[in-house]
Amino acid sequence: MNIVLAEPLGVDQKLIEEFKQKITAAGHALTVYDTCPADQEDLSKRVRDADAVLIANYPFGKEAILAAENLRYIDIAFTGVDHVAVDVCRDKGINVSNASGYSDIAVAELAFAMMLSLSRNVLQCDAVTRRSGTKNGLIGTELYGKTLGVVGAGKIGSTVMRIGQAFGCRVIAYNRTIKPELETTGVTFVTLEELMAKSDYVTLHVPVNDSTKGMINAKVLGLMKQNAFLINTARGPIVDSEALAKALNTGRIAGAGIDVFEMEPPIPADHPLLRAKNTLLTPHVAFATKEALERRAGIVFDNMFAWLGNEIKNKIC
C-alpha cells in the first residue's frame, strides 16, 4: 500500500520514523510531508497516488479526494471531521477513521483555564501589575459552589463534568440523550434552555453539524445570567459570533473564552470578537499539548495498522 502522511502531526520526528519503519517492514510505503499543503491543489498532488492518507486538521475537500483515484482510506488525526468531505468518501466507498479521545484531557483543561482566567481577571491583573497598579476593581469569583452547564456529554464533556465536580461545582448537562452513568455521579440532565438560564459557566462540547450550527444564538444567549461566562473549545460555527459580541459589549453576559472560530486562525482583523469586552481568545490550541499530540499519533497509526489488517477502528464511515 502507498500511504501518505499529508501534513505534520506535531510530534518528534523520531516517533514518526519509528512508525515508518514498522510500516515499511510490513511491506508498505509511507511518504511523510513535514509542511502543511499550500492549498487544495498542493494537497491533491501529495495524495494523488495514495491508497491511504493520514491528515490532521488541514481541509480535505472534494477536489483532493477525487484526485486520488486509488484512495481507499482516510485516517484523520483529529476528533472532529467537519474539515473532510465525508459525504464524498461515502459516495466513493472510502473508509474514514478519526482519533477520538486523544485530546479529552487537553481540551477540558483549557476550558477550565479559561473559566479561571475570566473569573479571576487574570489578564487584567497581569496588565495592571505591569503598570504598577493594584487589585482595585479586580475582585474575582470562585468556581466552588457555582453551577457548571456542560453542553454535550461525549468523552470531552464527561471529562469536563468530572473536573467540575472536583472544583465543587454543581454540574448540569444538555445532551441529545440522557446518560444514566453520568446521572449516577451527580450530573443532572436538563433542557438547553434550562441549562443556559441556570448556569454560572456554560461550556460547549458538541460536534458541528446541521443541528448544532448556530445553536448558541442571540435568543439562547439572552437566557444566560448577566454574571455568567460562555466557553467554546468545541467548534466555531456552533456560536453566532455577532450575537455573542453584542451580548458581551452590552453587558448581557460577563465574559467569554473562545478557542474556535468560523475559520481556522488567523482570524480576520474585523472579526466581531476581537472588539468584544472581557473576551479571552486563543488560536484553536485546546487540543495542542505534547501529551495529546503524542497520544494522537499513536491512535492514528494504530488505526492505520488495523486497516492494513482489514479492520477499521474509530470508524466514521
Walk me through the structure.
The protein folds into 2 domains: 2-102 and 290-308, Rossmann fold (3-Layer(aba) Sandwich); 104-281, NAD(P)-binding Rossmann-like Domain (Rossmann fold). The strands form 2 sheets. Strands 8-7-6-9-10-11-12 form a 7-stranded parallel β-sheet, with helices on both faces. Strands 2-1-3-4-5 form a 5-stranded parallel β-sheet, sandwiched between helices. The protein has 317 residues and is α/β, with parallel strands linked by helices. Helix 4 links the parallel strand 4 and strand 5. The longest helix has 19 residues, at 290-308. Helix 1 packs parallel to helix 12 and helix 5 (104-119) crosses helix 7. The chain contains 12 helices and 12 strands. Helix content is 36%, strand content 15%. The chain has helices spanning 13-25, 40-47, 62-67, 86-92, 104-119, 122-130, 155-166, 180-183, 192-198, 218-221, 241-249, 290-308, and strands at residues 2-5, 29-32, 52-55, 73-76, 95-97, 147-151, 170-174, 188-189, 201-204, 229-232, 255-258, 279-281. The radius of gyration is 21 Å and the shape is elongated.
Summary, kept brief:
It contains twelve helices and twelve strands.
**How many runs of DSSP E, i.e. beta strands?**
12
Please state the overall shape, judged from the principal axes of the Cα atoms.
Answer: elongated
Helix fraction, binned, reads: 25-40%
* Rg result: 21 Å
Give the amount of beta strand, in percent: 5-15%
Could you please say which CATH topology of the largest domain applies here? Answer: Rossmann fold
